[in-house]
Write a structure and sequence with these properties.
It is a single chain. The chain is an alpha+beta fold. The chain has a single domain, classed as Alpha-Beta Complex (Peptide Deformylase), CATH 3.90.45. About 20% of the residues lie in helices and about 30% in strands. The protein has helices at about 25-40, 125-135, 150-155; strands at about 45-50, 60, 70-80, 85, 95-100, 105-110, 115-120, 145-150. A hairpin with a 5-residue loop joins strand 6 and strand 7 (about 115-120). The two termini are about 20 Å apart. The structure holds nickel (II) ion. Nickel (II) ion binds near residues 90 and 165.
């Protein structure tokens, strides 16, 4: 496994629509392993393949720190409720902004064995799922920020969530 370089906002690769994965080849498996390692090394709760320069519909998410989801070709089945809170992104390090998201989502996707799975999430997991899925269509959370971006070190005193995705 190896760490991959995380692309920063402004890199054109972050604005492209990713392609579906038909097969988990050894090369895709290596990408999955590297993305998980890169996410943990960066203290993130999610990472999408375009953030490491690969235009494939693949994300990894772990909001608990010990249970990474490998999500291939995700499709949204349900989204309801509402949550408003700070959100960040590993492609925009050190910054956060307020974004309103659904409080509950349900997706269907393929796991790393290409078996179809469903995943439901609320709160941070729901936020992470939607955030990462938007990366696969070339979108960043900054398009939806309410108000100004803030520096994470200014947020520390405010007891807020500074997870980066
Ligand atoms: Ni992100």
């Amino acid at each position: 496994m190896a760490l991959r370089q995380i692309r920063i906002q402004g890199d054109p690769v972050l604005e492209k629509v990713c392609k579906e994965i038909n097969e988990v080849t050894p090369r895709v498996q290596e990408l999955i392993d590297d993305m998980i390692e890169t996410m943990y090394a960066a203290n993130g709760v999610g990472l999408a393949a375009p953030q490491v320069g690969i235009l494939k519909r693949l994300v990894v998410i772990d909001v608990t720190g010990d249970n990474p989801y490998v999500i291939i070709n995700p499709k949204l089945l349900e989204a309801d409720g509402e949550q408003t809170g700070y959100e960040g992104c590993l492609s925009l390090p050190g910054k956060s902004g307020i974004v309103t998201r659904p409080n509950h989502v349900k997706i269907v996707y393929q796991d790393e064995n290409m078996e179809t799975q469903e995943l439901e999430g609320t709160e941070l997991l729901a936020r992470a799922i939607i955030h990462e899925m938007e990366h696969l269509d070339g979108h960043m959370y900054t398009e939806k920020v309410e108000g100004d971006l803030v520096n994470n070190d200014e947020l520390m005193a405010a007891d807020t969530d500074d997870d980066e995705e």
